[in-house]
């Protein structure tokens, strides 16, 4: 036991990403629970207030939601009523300024894969994360609740908690997270770790250039001996969602409607490329729900069809590759040739392959360039180490051939460094890199001196997080 | 149902022995098997093999299982006494020190007091506050310079400063007061990350307002913590305004070299001050040398590294090509030297065939020119036909090339060998060459090679020749030598004429073909020799191979070979000449003094002579 330096204290590890939330116990190699970060929200009519309060079930939660003009700084932990049963409530910290204007809204939250993918007429889907930062704190609380109480089914007062955050997280958000952990959930100890550092940790590297391509964003973060180098952080909002959107546009351009599963009542097989023969259900849904369901189909498309060209994109070469068939939920099916290579190519050459870019998207650069820029902004003596430890993580890097291509591209940029790419072949490891790192770190004996304890929080307040977690 | 037995009984017959079989047949059906199943498998041997499953044997460990307990523990590495729980073997002592405590190490940083700073450590570019900020960072990040440089920002953001002070606790000498205050009041101090709030700037401005409206404590905290920065940053009475100032003033960052320079400089000074004891001199010197830091050199190094790393593939290719070229030249130099030596040896052997006519004179001149091409390189032409009257036409060349300390100058051409003069010259040359050889004893070894067939009377002469050849191959050839000895000396002893050498006839044992006596020609040259023969109107083989004819034939052939070699040499020299001319053209007329111009003029004469020769042969 002493040889590997581990010392389990039954810590919880939570990693809330843009697309997926991972929760589990430290020391395990896979999160116990992975569910979408998106939550469903159904507005309830105001007059139904009293009645609903009574029959509040366990699955759906009733909330008094504080809405303060969208300013994240003003709305802090919302008060829970009704179903806060098993979680003892703490008075809100003295340092938090109560907001003045308050619009009370009644509604139900739905969290979890099964809940949100179930059709409900007025359910809006929203994600608490934007740009890697937490925007919607109520939704985040729902996610925490769901993770700790519904999925892990544990008593938060018994376990220390470690969570991951993006490298560019702001002080306010970290402080609020600390407050949330201590005030609402009463964790005995808490820690916030940078996801890039954790990914490097999971890859077993103290120094690394962590390339994280997720749903909404691709970021490159240099890590030196467990510290993020802030000046080298490069990121752009080019991620899996943009690619899915491009696929959707492609389908639309070919006059193919992507109909999600929830709308389909009956279908019969059709010949390749023919119009689908389908009977639709009458299920009016919110645009956000429809979009999410469409994205799932497109996600499926990307997973099963798309591929990255191993070296440069060469139309002639690509055309000789075998085509792959794909069938949409409504029965329409087609064999995809060059198109399946064009989609992930956006990651490497957005200028050429991104169709109808928004003004913001026009400034995107290819991933190799992004990596190179990031390394260039670090000290020259450190650059060889960075190039020798490029760690690839995030679901968007799982296209077949992605790693090979990136390696090829990095070598074709003129420099005299040796490039070594670390891309775990295991899908779970690639998707849950930061969770895994947190899991390893929180089970180390030497880590336990770093926790923010309840006592420290009581003495110093939530600003302690900026002092202890760098 | 009546059976056979009943019938027998009735008829009182003896019972048959079938009975035994019957008993066998009516074996009782075992319990637990249905009749149908028994009917199927019955007495028959079952086709299915019934094997009792063999389970993995139970783990047989003699030891009893160890008991583990879920136990609280306190980590002494922590300031507070936070209690965490973990599983531990029950028999271990619960009060044992935490196992990982020993890994909690921190670096030892040499601190300094404000007094020390005032008396020794002042630097116009740094203030006390900034220096102590640097020290805080060094301690916080354990001298990880990459991180320190990344986080360095002066004046620091309030939150950063407080975080540092919190981390460093009270062991910091300078900002003790500020740190304590921050600790006390830090609880309610708002953390405003103005630069980080780039995406939501509206939010941060809101925040400032709420702060100033909020409470007195926070405002005070702001003032207190910014106070140490007053040296470089104006402080105001309210937190919000000072914050505003902070956002306007651009944060100063420093390069890693700056930071390291400062750090090591201070460390050196402090070491010098504190280790004044003479007994620690050795240790002190060691410490000081370990703290040496040359900022300009580091900057230079990084700049060069940058250049090195930003080469384009073309540049890298070009560099490699140049490197290869340089190596080739290097190797060729040796080859050329070797060729020259060979050539000279060749000339030696050639001379056994009797007097050279104008051709050989030309040859000699040519070779001489080759020697003149190099500095300090007199090449001695051991040829009978050449004498050296150091006449006025050649004097200029000799003078220009003069001062050849290493050896006698090569000859200009004189026709008709005057033996006596030659002998005298040879003697003189021997004298000077002897001196030269004495000065470079190493080269003596080489000498015999060059003079295999030379006769003993003037043994030093070939040595000098070899010396001279060596000199010509020295790296700085083609540059006029500095005429240190003056022109007079060498010109007197300018040629060595070894006596004619008789080629020993090889005695082949046993029977042999007469054609074996023909001097073989190197196969690579054969083609060209033959073409030369064609131009001369001679057949490849003599029609009547008598001894005299063959002797002549041999001579002709070897002459041709020599000629070809010399032609090659001449071509080389021509190209050299071209290069020299070009160089002279680029240098301009200004430097065209006697020293630099004459080698080329001498070369020119050599080439001219060579061309004459070419004309004769039409090669």
TrEMBL record, chain A:
<dbReference type="InterPro" id="IPR043129">
    <property type="entry name" value="ATPase_NBD"/>
</dbReference>
<comment type="similarity">
    <text>Belongs to the actin family.</text>
</comment>
<feature type="region of interest" description="Disordered">
    <location>
        <begin position="45"/>
        <end position="93"/>
    </location>
</feature>
<dbReference type="InterPro" id="IPR004001">
    <property type="entry name" value="Actin_CS"/>
</dbReference>
<protein>
    <submittedName>
        <fullName>Actin-like 6A</fullName>
    </submittedName>
</protein>
<dbReference type="InterPro" id="IPR004000">
    <property type="entry name" value="Actin"/>
</dbReference>
<dbReference type="Pfam" id="PF00022">
    <property type="entry name" value="Actin"/>
</dbReference>
<feature type="compositionally biased region" description="Acidic residues">
    <location>
        <begin position="49"/>
        <end position="58"/>
    </location>
</feature>
From TrEMBL, chain B:
<keyword id="KW-0156">Chromatin regulator</keyword>
<keyword id="KW-0539">Nucleus</keyword>
<protein>
    <recommendedName>
        <fullName>SWR1-complex protein 4</fullName>
    </recommendedName>
</protein>
<dbReference type="GO" id="GO:0003714">
    <property type="term" value="F:transcription corepressor activity"/>
</dbReference>
<dbReference type="Pfam" id="PF16282">
    <property type="entry name" value="SANT_DAMP1_like"/>
</dbReference>
<dbReference type="GO" id="GO:0035267">
    <property type="term" value="C:NuA4 histone acetyltransferase complex"/>
</dbReference>
<dbReference type="GO" id="GO:0006281">
    <property type="term" value="P:DNA repair"/>
</dbReference>
<comment type="similarity">
    <text>Belongs to the SWC4 family.</text>
</comment>
<dbReference type="InterPro" id="IPR032563">
    <property type="entry name" value="DAMP1_SANT-like"/>
</dbReference>
<dbReference type="InterPro" id="IPR027109">
    <property type="entry name" value="Swc4/Dmap1"/>
</dbReference>
<dbReference type="GO" id="GO:0006338">
    <property type="term" value="P:chromatin remodeling"/>
</dbReference>
<feature type="region of interest" description="Disordered">
    <location>
        <begin position="178"/>
        <end position="205"/>
    </location>
</feature>
<feature type="region of interest" description="Disordered">
    <location>
        <begin position="583"/>
        <end position="619"/>
    </location>
</feature>
<feature type="region of interest" description="Disordered">
    <location>
        <begin position="433"/>
        <end position="501"/>
    </location>
</feature>
<dbReference type="GO" id="GO:0000122">
    <property type="term" value="P:negative regulation of transcription by RNA polymerase II"/>
</dbReference>
<feature type="domain" description="DNA methyltransferase 1-associated 1">
    <location>
        <begin position="509"/>
        <end position="583"/>
    </location>
</feature>
<keyword id="KW-0804">Transcription</keyword>
<keyword id="KW-0805">Transcription regulation</keyword>
<dbReference type="Pfam" id="PF05499">
    <property type="entry name" value="DMAP1"/>
</dbReference>
<dbReference type="GO" id="GO:0000812">
    <property type="term" value="C:Swr1 complex"/>
</dbReference>
<feature type="compositionally biased region" description="Gly residues">
    <location>
        <begin position="586"/>
        <end position="596"/>
    </location>
</feature>
<feature type="compositionally biased region" description="Basic and acidic residues">
    <location>
        <begin position="181"/>
        <end position="191"/>
    </location>
</feature>
